[in-house]
Amino acid sequence: MTVSLATVRYVKALFSVAARRGESEALKAELARLGELLAGAPELGLALRDPRLPAAAKKRVLERAGLDTASRTLGDFVALCLERRRPEVVIEAPEEYGRLEREARGVVEARVQTIAPMDQDMRTSILAQLEEVTGMTIQLVEEILPELIGGVRILIGSRMYDGSIRRRLDDIAAHLLSARLA
């Protein structure tokens, strides 16, 4: 998922505050729990995004859903985001915090998209090549996308390495469409 620029800014500030207070690990666990809550109850995200609900009501909804035991740091962060009408930041925060935490450890996430699950040899080969190219420790996240037809597409941050059959067919189609007819 792509996160908003506002989320990047707010979560970067949260990450910094948590590090200064020595709460990084605890906050990581709390945000993971928030992410699970949101993933398990799509209606929760809808309620947070509902512009008719005031911030206080949205906060009560989150507390009833299981955030009533959240740390003061997370509670203040959620309250701030909701008061500033930034519910997307609350929804996207678990993912962005995880990315920042991995980045701080020198680990980068690579989304590897294929048409079928990779075997261990392919996974090991791709991992070794990516670590060599980037010079970083890579965490692979596999996605199955039958529409690729074949090959592999890899996304690392905003970079895409596309070796899929779908891309090759699209390139051929674009070339044929742009060719001049004699």
Give the helix/strand layout.
Elements: H1 5-21, H2 24-40, H3 42-49, H4 55-65, H5 72-83, H6 87-104, E1 107-114, H7 120-134, E2 137-144, E3 153-156, E4 159-162, H8 165-178
Query: Which structural class fits the helix and strand makeup?
Result: alpha+beta
Mean pLDDT: 94
- The CATH architecture classification of the largest domain is Orthogonal Bundle
Give the class-level CATH name of the largest domain.
Mainly Alpha
Total domains, how many?
A: 2
The CATH topology of the largest domain comes to: Peroxidase, domain 1
Shape: globular
How large is the share of residues in beta strands?
Answer: 5-15%
Helices and strands, in order, run as HHHHHHEHEEEH
Q: Count of helical segments?
A: 8
Return Rg in Å: 21 Å
Low-confidence parts lasting 5 or more residues at pLDDT below 50?
A: none
Assembly type of the chains comes to single chain
> What is the spatial order of strands in the main beta sheet?
2-1-3-4
Give an overview in words.
The structure is a single chain. It contains 8 helices and 4 strands. It has helices at residues 5-21, 24-40, 42-49, 55-65, 72-83, 87-104, 120-134, 165-178, and strands at residues 107-114, 137-144, 153-156, 159-162. The chain has a 4-stranded mixed beta sheet with strand order 2-1-3-4, sandwiched between helices. It is globular. The mean pLDDT is 94.
Question: What is the compact description of this entry?
Answer:
The chain has 2 domains: 5-103, Peroxidase, domain 1 (Orthogonal Bundle); 106-178, 3-Layer(aba) Sandwich (Glutaredoxin). It is of the alpha+beta class and 182 residues long. Helices cover 62% and strands 13% of the residues.
